[in-house]
Amino acid sequence: MILGAKNPVNFLNNKIANGNCHITEVKHSDWAEIEQDSKIYTDFNEVSNRLREIMNKQAGTGVSNKPIVVHVYSESALNLSLVDLPGLVINQISGQAEDIPEQIERMVISYISDPNTIILCVLPANVPPSNWKARNVVDKVDPSGERTLAALTQIDAMVDGTNANDALSGKDLKFKLGIIGVCNRSQRQLDNGISIDETAQLEKDYFSQNYPDFSNTCGIKYLIKRMNELLVKKIKADLPILMAAFQNDLKKIERQLIDLGVREDITPENRSEKMFEIINDFSKEYEKLIQGGRAVLYNDEEAPCKKISDIFYVDFERELQIDHTKYLTPDRVKRWIDNAIGLTPKILCSSAPFIEVCKTETQRYCDPSVECVVRVHTELLNGIDTCTRNVRNVRSAFQIYPQIEKRFRQIITELLSDYFEGSKDLIEVYIESLTSHISGAHPMFANAIDVESKKIRDGRTVKLGNPETYSDKPSANQLQPAKQTGTFRITPKINQKTSSNQEPESGMPEEVLPPDQSNRMSGINGNESNGILSDPMNNLYHDAEQQRNEQPELMFDETTSLIMSLVPKYMSIVRRNVLDTVPVLIVSSMNRKLEKKLAPTLNQRLGSLSVAELEELFREEEKIATMRQQLESQRKVGSSLLDIMHFQLRTVIT
Questions:
Q1: Mean pLDDT for the stretch of residues 409-413
Q2: How does pLDDT run across 610-635, given as a tens digit for each residue?
Q3: Stretch (H or E) spanning 204
Q4: How far is Cα 234 from Cα 249, in angstroms, rounded to an integer?
Q5: Which residues contact 279 (CB under 8 A, 6 or more apart)?
Q6: Which pLDDT score, from 0 to 100, does residue 498 have?
Q7: Each residue's pLDDT tens digit, 75-104
Q8: How many Cβ atoms from other residues are within 10 Å of residue 553's Cβ?
Q9: Residue 588: what pLDDT?
Q10: Using a CB cutoff of 8 Å and minimum separation of 24, what contacts does 419-423 make?
Q11: 391 by DSSP, 3-state: which?
């Protein structure tokens, strides 16, 4: 130990065998080396003096965290390593920083906090236990005393009438590794040149005379022996754990080397064959990732095909949940009807408002559909990274030869760019086709007009909302779909009697006569020629006219309500068609095309390269080569350390 240490001093003691003395003239074959010096020290007093010089230079009047390493070689030494730390102080001395006590305490705690460390706590016997600062610091990191050994010093300097029996017996002290009394050389002994061996004999005599009950477990030699026993025990307990950790580190290094790939010395003649192999591996796995077939992926990530499925059947469906009645108010619909009728009498209402509204609402499906194309295109591009991560051969090839990966990305990106534009145009044309023809004859919509009209006629009220899609099979109490005429018939709100107050021959108003009697009555101008219409053989519109004559006509406001109720019904059918058709169009125009063209295009573009171009592609990146070299060096060092640990473990056990 160094009196007044200012730096951590790491002593590495090494036992040497007889006859292996480094310097034959050294007494007891003992010598030391300080790492900062190239000199071999045979005088340990000189070692102490040199250490003080180094400390004063590095720390001045304070302390320094920079450790000083000392190798000690001796026939009598035990294989032991220990760190001598600066002694804890309460107050600073002149020229020292005010926080010097805190600096030293932080330094000590940084060394003894490691749970694998054995702590040697030096306690002065001539100081009351309540003032033992070292014990207070140790209690912070080892409160149970499981890994602390105490060295009781200054026993021979205790006040007359006191003794160290209680302390040596461990009374009221919790140091599980023991308490050992020692007597160091006094300053007088140092001045008189008393040797270490002479000091050891004096120490032995002192404890035999004054503490006979503890004489066998006291002294510097016993302290060294006890520390060596504890170290060996610690090695036996911890070395297998440390070896297992080293083995895990070596396995990680091996995996990293495997991921980097084994560098192949590919000849110019074999480069084309190797390129074909990489293309084949990549194409097969990429197809599985974008279409399906590969279940377990790196880091349990989702495959591109799963993400594309979610885009189609979760995200796209959610984005098409559009409120088609948001801007559909009665006033706006009436205005549209008036605009469509114009100067014509309000007897027949044009279906133009309904058609225009449906066209506008159908066009709202275009942006979400195009966005669906964009997102699928993105996932197909991301599939390159997924394939690289999950296919070892591909990952290895791309890491070793990054220019090949760069060329793959370029070719696939160009292909997808063309397919993306074609797919987007196809979707836009499809939506445009839906807007160009609003079909009231759709089998799921054909009877909707009659059903809604009947509701209005029966109750003269309409319950607005978002009705369910109608079946293509009308119920028994529903009328069959009327033939499309492109109009809704409106009854103007006027007095139904003629200006001459004349009534039909039947004695009741014409509007309430049975259809058969009404049809037999004279025409509007008293002309009997209207009777011709009753002959189905002579009138192609007989069925439609009969249905209109059998039902009361809708009022203007009721026609408005009818349009407002029919728009969401028709749009629900359009939405279903878009949800079904857009994914099919995207897959057929982008995914399938890429699957068919990927391998042939890669082979065509990369298989026809010149010798110089292939050589450039198969050039290993310098960073990868350096990384491989470092990992191989780490593996070599780790293997050597593991061998040393095995040897040490066998030595300790025997």
A1: 92
A2: 888 888 888 777 777 788 788 888 88
A3: helix 196-210
A4: 22
A5: 599, 602, 603, 606
A6: 39
A7: 766 666 788 888 888 777 777 788 888 988
A8: 18
A9: 94
A10: 419/377, 419/589, 419/590, 419/593, 419/594, 420/373, 420/374, 420/377, 420/590, 422/589, 422/590, 423/373, 423/377, 423/585, 423/586, 423/589, 423/590
A11: coil
Q: Which residues pair with 554 in a beta bridge?
A: 490
Lookup: tokens for 123: 């306690």
CA distances from 86 to 13, 103, 108, 469 (A): 20, 10, 8, 88
Report which residue type is found at 518: S
Angle at 614 between CA 611 and CA 618, to 5 degrees: 135
Q: What is the DSSP string of 517-580?
A: HHHHS--TTS-GGGGGGG-TTT-TTHHHHHHHHHSPPBPHHHHHHHHHHHHHHHHHHHHHHHHH
**What is the rounded distance in angstroms from the CA atom of residue 604 to the CA atom of residue 598?**
10
- What is the reported pLDDT for 499? 40
User: Do 523 and 530 contact (CB within 8 A), yes or no?
Assistant: yes
More confident position, 279 or 237: 279
Q: Label residues 2-30 b or e (16+ Cβ within 10 Å = b).
A: beebbbbbebbbeebeeeebeeeebeebb
CATH for 287: 1.20.120.1240
**506 inside domain:** no
Secondary structure of 295-308 as H, E, C letters: CCCHHHCCCHHHHH
Q: Which of 311, 275, 314 is nearest to 290 (CA)?
A: 311
Q: Quick check: 462 and 562 in contact, CB under 8 A?
A: yes
* 493: pLDDT strictly greater than 50: no
Whole-model pTM above 0.85?
no
In a domain, 606, yes or no: yes
Name the domain boundary from 112, 133, 166.
Answer: 112
Place of tokens 């984005």: 319
The mean of the pLDDT values for the chain is 78
Whether residue 174 contacts residue 142, with contact meaning beta carbons closer than 8 Å, is answered with: no
Residue 141 forms part of a structural domain: no
Task: Please determine, for residue 159, whether its predicted confidence score (pLDDT) is greater than 50.
Answer: yes
For the domain that residue 82 is a member of, what is the CATH number?
3.40.50.300
DSSP SS3 for 15: strand
341 in a domain, yes or no? no
DSSP letter (8 states) at residue 292: S
The rounded radius of gyration (Å) of the Cα atoms in the chain is: 50
What phi and psi, each to the nearest 5 degrees, are found at residue 110? -65, -30
Q: Alpha-carbon torsion 217, 221, 227, 228, what sign? A: negative
Tens of pLDDT, residues 211-270 = 999 999 999 999 988 988 888 888 788 888 888 888 898 888 888 887 776 566 667 778
Q: Which residues contact 379 (CB under 8 A, 6 or more apart)?
A: 290, 304, 307, 308, 311
Using the structure block, give the residue that is written with the tokens 């591909």: 394
List pLDDT tens digits, range 14-41: 777 654 544 444 455 688 888 878 888 8
Which is nearest to 325 in space by CA: 564, 129, 489, 531? 564
Percentage above 90 pLDDT, the chain: 24
Q: Looking at residue 69, what DSSP letter applies?
A: E
- Distance of alpha carbon 621 from alpha carbon 394, whole angstroms: 16
Residue 534 has pLDDT above 50, yes or no: no
Residues 6+ apart with CB under 8 A from 366: 427, 428, 431
Range of the domain at 395: 271-320+350-439+571-612
Domain count of the fold of the chain = 2
